[in-house]
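Tokens for chain A. Residues wanted.
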């Protein structure tokens, strides 16, 4: 095999979204040499797409807000399945992370008296989302990138090399986390443009790869959300938790078909937008579940009064947590009261002056004008649920973001599990990735420092195995040079003997399967069928063949991503089949109630070692793990009447 270049760094961060960049800044601030690898262009991470804002209880718009209220809202949103320690750290530290961004140059929208403005969002008791119009993610990434550049300038002054202590490898994809015994030793990568392989040796690896949305047909996620970090963790021996909880955002575009799934930010509802069915009825009043009844308005008049006078009115039901709104829209469409293109209507045009809409929601105004030829200042939008976020992810230690069971592996941001329980509140992802990105960078740096010169090694045989795996879609090994063709058996079938498969066809069937059978409403038979289909798709994926050479070859890249999407999809389907209740982002038609016994359980997915490399029908093993009891002082933040809805009698009497 051709020579594969090796580089040595202290910490390697996989992903340059908010979590990855925040981790990188922290590791570099600790004085460690930090490499950042990202699949897309630097600056084009998913975080850029975040519209609504960053949730942090700064109390700028309502002084009643503080970390305890934010903690309570987050636990309620997650239906008490959150790793409570993560929810606590998140609520306590989010304001500091936002203020820190401001000192690094972020330009937030302001209140009339000059403080960082905060807006309302579903499930948040007070206006809490620090924002920059509806382009908050862009400003967040711009600021973090600027900070990286300023650190590089400091390094240049000191050493004459901008990349002495922080270097970004853009458009490079990691296909394996490498290990020496049980310890992490680095990452195997390919460069998208040239197809060249290289290895980064480092004792600490931080996964910050984002979500899994591209396994579903209708999604707000972009092309790189193929569950890579989730799969890399599994393959490295770590576990995933809560994979049954997938968030379907209630408002994605439904028309035209080419843009189906693109997000319509929750700020539209936070700023006063309302949902109506084809009969013009504001239907959300019919869908307030018992657990939320006390907090939500019963009439339009009461709901509308809340925008001006929140202390004396209850909240509009359009601002229920996302899972509730998504299910309500689904039910209206199913009942035949949907909009012409299979969604419902979301209207701001009758609620705010045109100029206010353009000022507060500039991206939405532009998006609908350009993509759907709809002027949202004059007519309603058509919207419906879209796969948006995965609550499940790498099983990490709450304080350190260390992946349990794999020394040297860390995870932060959307790829990490636990923080959001069964359902994430809007705005809680940007704050999550800042809080836990920093923690992951800090603890990865400390871990690497503690390793000293006794570093785990990357064996040549591991590199060869990773390269062979990456080249399998070509049939035989092509050279990375220009004009290098596919191997001789390209297009003639795989070693399993069946016909050659096209990666795009397999991907399309995977997306359809997950959408239809493990989507927003789930049933036992359908998930059983999904698992059978996934086994078939996995077998076909082994026969995927691609043409051409290794230089910028999207078919090849997708063929490699398929392994990850299939692994992650199996985790989602198995966990969803196992959890016989409905909670947050997991709705069972056959078990429609929330079950207090199930609140105590996390479903933990691991890879069956013997099946890791072969095409076995089930590669994921699932076990049930008890949640640790919630600390007493945190439980005391809730009324007993509320806790009764979530905790078992045994838990209630033991506190
Ligand atoms: P990302 O920002 O997605 O970054 C992932 C990085 O990993 C990228 O650099 C990618 O290239 C890289 N990567 C992936 N796989 C590999 C690999 N194999 N090798 C190398 N690199 C890899 N949340 C909020 O809190 N507020 C909002 O207002 C909000 N609005 C949203 C709007 C939209 C349209 C969407 C889709 C999401 C929104 N979210 C919002 C959710 C939030 O944006 C994401 O959850 C969050 O940005 C994830 O950040 P991250 O750092 O974990 O991952």
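Reply:
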């Amino acid at each position: 095999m051709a020579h594969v270049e090796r580089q040595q760094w202290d910490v390697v961060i996989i992903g340059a979204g908010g979590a990855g960049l925040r981790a990188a800044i922290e590791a570099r601030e600790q004085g460690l040499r930090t490499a950042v690898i990202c699949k897309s262009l630097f600056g084009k991470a998913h975080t850029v797409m975040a519209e609504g804002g960053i949730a942090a209880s700064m109390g700028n718009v309502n002084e009643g807000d503080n970390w305890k209220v934010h903690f309570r809202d987050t636990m309620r949103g997650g239906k008490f399945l959150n790793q409570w320690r993560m929810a606590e750290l998140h609520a306590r530290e989010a304001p500091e992370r936002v203020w820190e961004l401001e000192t690094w140059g972020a330009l937030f929208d302001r209140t009339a008296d000059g403080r960082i403005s905060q807006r309302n969002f579903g499930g948040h008791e007070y206006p809490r989302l620090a924002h920059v119009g509806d382009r908050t993610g862009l400003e967040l990434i711009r600021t973090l990138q600027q900070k990286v550049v300023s650190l590089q300038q400091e390094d240049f002054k000191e050493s004459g090399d901008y990349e002495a202590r922080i270097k970004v490898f853009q458009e490079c994809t990691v296909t394996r986390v490498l290990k020496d015994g049980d310890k992490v030793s680095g990452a195997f990568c390919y460069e998208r443009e040239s197809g060249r392989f290289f290895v980064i040796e480092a004792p600490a690896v931080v996964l910050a790869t984002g979500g899994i949305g591209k396994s579903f047909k209708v999604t707000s996620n972009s092309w790189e959300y193929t569950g890579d970090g989730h799969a890399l963790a599994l393959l490295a021996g770590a576990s995933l938790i809560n994979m049954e909880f997938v968030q379907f955002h209630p408002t994605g575009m439904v028309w035209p078909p080419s843009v189906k799934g693109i997000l319509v930010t929750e700020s539209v509802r936070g700023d006063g937008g309302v949902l109506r069915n084809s009969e013009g009825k504001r239907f959300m009043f019919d869908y307030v579940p018992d657990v939320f009844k006390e907090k939500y308005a019963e009439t339009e008049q009461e709901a509308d009064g809340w925008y001006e006078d929140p202390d004396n009115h209850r909240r509009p039901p359009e601002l229920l947590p996302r899972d509730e709104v998504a299910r309500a829209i689904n039910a209206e469409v199913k009942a035949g009261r949907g909009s012409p293109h299979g969604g419902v209507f979301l209207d701001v045009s009758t609620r705010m002056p045109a100029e206010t809409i353009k000022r507060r929601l500039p991206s939405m105004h532009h998006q609908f004008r350009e993509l759907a030829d709809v002027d949202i200042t004059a007519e309603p939008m058509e919207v419906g649920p879209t796969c948006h976020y995965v609550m499940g992810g790498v099983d990490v230690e709450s304080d350190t973001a260390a992946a349990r069971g794999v020394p040297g592996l860390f995870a932060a941001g959307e790829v990490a599990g636990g923080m959001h329980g069964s359902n994430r509140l809007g705005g809680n992802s940007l704050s999550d990735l800042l809080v836990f990105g920093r923690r992951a960078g800090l603890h990865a740096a400390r871990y690497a420092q503690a390793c000293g010169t006794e570093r785990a090694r990357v064996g040549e045989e591991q590199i060869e195995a990773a390269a062979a795996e990456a080249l399998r879609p070509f049939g035989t090994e092509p050279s990375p040079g220009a004009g290098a063709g596919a191997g001789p058996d390209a297009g003639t079938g795989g070693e399993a003997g069946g016909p050659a498969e096209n990666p795009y066809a397999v991907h399309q069937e995977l997306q359809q399967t997950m959408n239809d059978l493990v989507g927003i409403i789930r049933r036992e038979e359908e998930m059983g069928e999904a698992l059978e289909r996934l086994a078939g798709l996995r077998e076909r994926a082994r026969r995927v063949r691609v043409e051409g050479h290794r230089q910028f070859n999207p078919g090849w890249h997708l063929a490699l991503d398929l392994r990850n999407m299939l692994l992650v999809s199996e985790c989602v389907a198995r966990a969803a089949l196992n959890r016989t209740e409905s909670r947050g982002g997991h709705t069972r038609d056959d078990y429609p109630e929330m079950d207090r016994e199930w609140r105590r359980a996390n479903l933990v997915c691991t890879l069956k070692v013997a099946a890791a490399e072969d095409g076995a029908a089930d590669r994921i093993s699932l076990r049930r793990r008890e949640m640790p009891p919630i600390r007493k002082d945190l439980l005391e933040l809730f009324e007993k009447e509320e806790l009764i809805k979530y905790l078992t009698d045994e838990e209630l009497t033991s506190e």
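DSSP finds 18 helices and 20 strands in the chain. The longest helix spans residues 554-578.
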